[in-house]
Amino acid sequence: MLPASRHLLPACPTARARARRLGALATAVLIAEAELTPKPALVDRRGRGAHTDLDLDLMRRSARALQSGFEAMALCAAGQRPSPQLRERLAQLGRDAEVAMLAASAGANTHRGAIWALGLLLAGAVASPEVPPSSLPRLAVGDTAAHLAAVTADTIAHTAGAIARHPDRLAPPNPSHGAAVCARYGVSGARGEACAGFPHVLHHGLPTLRAARARGLPEDSARLDALLAIMSHLDDTCLLHRGGRDALLTAQVGASTVLALGGTSTPAGSRALHRLDAQLLALDASPGGSADLLAATLFLDALHP
User: pTM of this prediction?
Assistant: First the structure.
C-alpha cells in the first residue's frame, strides 16, 4: 500500500534526489496495484487470477527490480523539452528496464505496459511543461519545489503525451502483442492512450478515486472503483489478446454494472464484482491494460493529492 501521506515530493536539492523519490514512488504504486484485492482476474492477494505464469511475490520482485530504471528515466528527462531525442533516450532506458524485469520475473511479462506508462509520466513530471507559459506562475530559476507545485496532473499527462507522440527511430522491428491486437481490432492501445495524454487516467481513474474518497469510502474500495471506471471505458488490449471482443465486452459491461450498483463497497456491487471475476476467469482473460492505468492513476494522485 502507498503510505497514508501521499505528499512524497518535498523540496529536493538536486535532480538526482528528485529522481530517486520518483523512482521509489513508481515502484510503490506498482506494488500497491498488485496487492489491491479483490481485482477481477488479476494477480492479487488471493492468487494468480487468469495468469499461470504470475503471482504476487513475482509482481513485487519485478516492481523492485524496476526502481533504478525509473530513477534513470526521471533523471534523463529533468528539465528537458519533449523531443525525438528525449523520446529515444527514454525508450532505450525502458528497454533496459524490461531486461531487468525479465531477469527478476524468470522471463514473465509482469510490467511491460507499466514501464511504458509510468516511464512517460515520470518524464512528464520533471520535463519542461508542454503548456502555454502564461498558464504557469513565474518561477525563480532552480525553484524545484515551486515547479512541482505548479505542474498539475493534467500538465504531467499532457507533457508525457507530447513525448510519446515523437517517433522512436531505434525501436526494434518485432511487433508486440499489443501492436498486433491494435492492428487486428482497430483500437489505439497503450501507445494511443499515452499519445492522447492518458485520458482514461485523467477522466475516469482519478475522478472516480477522489470522488469515492470524498464519500468516505475505504481506500481499497476507492482504488477498486477507479480500476472499474477505467475498465468500463478502455479498449483493453490485454483482454482483446486473450479473449477477443467477448472478453472486452464482458469486462466493460461487468465493470459498469458494479459501479451502477454503488461500487465495490456496497453488497450488491461486491457481488457483481465477484461475478465479473468468475466470468473473466472462465474466459481466461485479464484486464492488464486497465491495471497499468490504475498504477498511473495512483502515481499522479500521489504527486498531486
Answer: 0.90
At 133-143, the pLDDT tens digits run: 444 444 343 44
Q: Indicate the Cα dihedral angle 240, 162, 227, 59, nearest 10°.
A: 80
Helices (H), 109-266: 112-126, 144-150, 153-164, 177-185, 189-195, 199-200, 206-214, 219-233, 237-260
Q: Report the C-alpha gap between 301 and 291 in whole angstroms.
A: 15
To the nearest 10 degrees (0 to 180), the angle between helices 15-35 and 67-77 is 140
Cell numbers linked to 15:
535532480
Which residue is listed with cell 493534467?
154
pLDDT in tens, 19-35: 999 999 999 999 999 99
Longest dimension (CA), the chain: 57
Q: DSSP letters along 93-114, please?
A: HHHHHHHHHHHHTTT--SSHHH
